Structure formats: structure tokens, C-alpha cells
Amino acid sequence: MGDSVLPPPRHIAIIMDGNGRWAKSRGLPRTAGHAAGAEAFRRIANYCRSLGVEYLTVYAFSTENWRRSGEEITGIMGLLEKYLREALADMDKNRVRFRFFGDLSRLSEKLRALCRDAENRSGSYDVQVNFCLNYGGRDEIVRAARAFAQAAARGAADPEALTEETFSGYLYSAGVPDPELIIRPSGEKRISNFLLWQAAYAEFVFQDILWPDYQPEDLDAAIAEYHRRSRRFGGA
Ligand code: FPP
Known about the structure:
- The protein is an alpha/beta fold.
- The protein has one domain: Decaprenyl diphosphate synthase-like (Undecaprenyl pyrophosphate synthetase).
- Helix content is 44%, strand content 16%.
- The protein has helices at 19-25, 30-51, 70-89, 91-94, 109-120, 137-153, 164-168, 216-233, and strands at 11-15, 55-62, 96-101, 127-135, 181-185, 203-207.
- The protein has a 6-stranded parallel sheet with strand order 3-4-2-1-5-6, with helices on both faces.
- Helix 5 links the parallel strand 3 (96-101) and strand 4.
- The longest helix has 22 residues, at 30-51.
- The radius of gyration is 18 Å and the shape is globular.
- The structure holds farnesyl diphosphate (FPP).
- Farnesyl diphosphate (FPP) binds at residues 16-21, 34, 37-38, 41, 60, 65, 76, 79-80, 83.
């Protein structure tokens, strides 16, 4: 653990996948898989901080996840509330700050208030966690296009002057550098509407391990793979 000599990427993004299968293989309800997934998140967020990763973006709930059962949705939302309540209490000690990517308007008022409190807390921090909540990559791009069009219609933006960089400023991720490494555990090899715009130049690492089992050693392996590839393709 921690034996990679090369610095980690500045920004790592993770699709926390495999909670349901983890629970099923143990004869447990899916919610138990999400609870174990939340523990894995704590473990890996702490490890990222100790490695000096500046941004960690995680897919916690997608725009498609509303199709799941009411019980499962309530379970995931409850875990997020519990986590944020605890994180708010320990924010100065943990030196983490939070941003939320997604349309929070569909979340409960209680959860929205926690997200707002977490985002508004200032102070020094070592790592920024971006929680993707009710997030979809296409939805993010459509919202950005709409916001730009509205700005253009009122004369506050010039369509001729639009660049990739200025468009990025309309996304949820405004101001955050793109992830260099995107990890998907659980054996699935799809992007599933995650960070579509921001993934343009990212390295993808797919690992055959369920998210609740994910350990710091697995992140080391993903980072080592990232370095092998960026050394091989790293331009002249
Ligand atoms: C994907 O696994 C996971 C999710 C849809 C939810 C992720 C949520 C958490 C890890 C808990 C959130 C709380 C915190 C504090 C991070 P899946 O259910 O699709 O797994 P499967 O593909 O095996 O069914």
C-alpha cells in the first residue's frame, strides 16, 4: 500500500458499482450492499487524502437510479444523510470539502439542506469530494446548453465567442479540472452517463472487484496502471 513512487493523478473519479451483487452473494438485502459501499467510500476517500489526490468524484446516485424500488432509494438517501451529518461534524478534522454535481431539487429537503451546509462550509481542506447525486452526464450538458442559450438570449453571452473552456463553466463541474483517471469496479465496462464531457481525455481502469470489497491496494493498482499507460502514450 502506498508504494507507488509516482504522484497520483490530481483528480480521480469512481463509479461505485457492485453493491447489489455483493449483497446478493451474501444473501443480504441490496441496502446492506449500499451500506458496505458507503464504508468503502470512507476508506477510499481517506486513502485519497493521504495520497495527496486533490479531487475525488463519485457516482452516488444517477438520474436513472430513480427506477429502483422505493425501499432501495430510501436506503441510499438515508446513507447519504448519515454520512453527510457525520462528515459535517468532522469536517475540520478530516480536511475534506464537498461539492455536489446533479439536480438536487428532487432530493428531500433534509438532504438538500445537508448538501447546502456542506457546500457552504469554508475553511482549509486537503481534498475535495464531488458527489454526483441525481446526476446524468447528458442532463448536465443539456442544462449547460440551456443556461448558455439563456445568457445569450439576454445578451450576456456571445455564441460566436463560445469555447470549450467557457462552456465548461456552465457545467456542474465548473472550476474543477477534468479527471485523469476514471475507475469502474465490478467488472462492468461502460461509462453509464458518468462525466461524459469531463471524460474526454481520461484513462479508464476497469477492475474485477465489487465496490464494497474495494481496498487501498486496489486503488494503488489502478494508479499504477494509469502511470503505465500515460508513460506509454504520453506524447513526445
Ligand atoms: C451501484 O451499485 C451503486 C449505487 C447505485 C449507489 C451507490 C451508493 C453508495 C455507495 C452509498 C452512498 C453513500 C455514501 C456515503 C457514498 P449497484 O447497486 O448497481 O450494484 P449491482 O450492479 O451489483 O446491482
